[in-house]
Design a protein that fits this description.
- Helix 1 runs parallel beside helix 5.
- The chain has 117 residues and is α+β, with helices and mostly antiparallel strands.
- 46% of the residues lie in helices and 14% in strands.
- The chain has a 3-stranded antiparallel beta sheet with strand order 1-3-2.
Amino acid sequence: MLALSSRLEAVDKKLLFLIHTYGKALSKRRLHQLVYDLQERYRVNLGFRFAGQPPFSQDLEDRLEALVEKGFLKKVYVVGSRFTTLYKPYYAITEKGVKAIEKRDFSKSDQEAIERL
C-alpha cells in the first residue's frame, strides 16, 4: 500500500492529467484500459503491470485508491445496467487534483501522448 503523504509523484500527476484531459468521470474498467494503452501503444512509462482481458492492474488500483484517500480524486458510484453490476465505480478529479496538475511538471512528450489518447 502506498504511503499517505500529500506529495505527488510524476505517475500520480500523469494519472490526474489523464482523467482531467478526458473531461468526465471514468469507469474503473475504462481507466485501466486507457492506462494500458498509454503504456503499450504510446510508450508512456507509468510502471504498471497488467493481466487479463480487459487489462487490470492491482498496482494501478492501489494508486487510484491512494489518490482518492488524499482527496485528489473522488470515487462516484453509478447504477449499473444489470443485477450483477448494481453500482459501478467511476473516478473523477477534484479541485485539489486540478490544482496539483496546473504546473504539468512532467515530460512534454508524455503530456502530448495523453492528449492524443
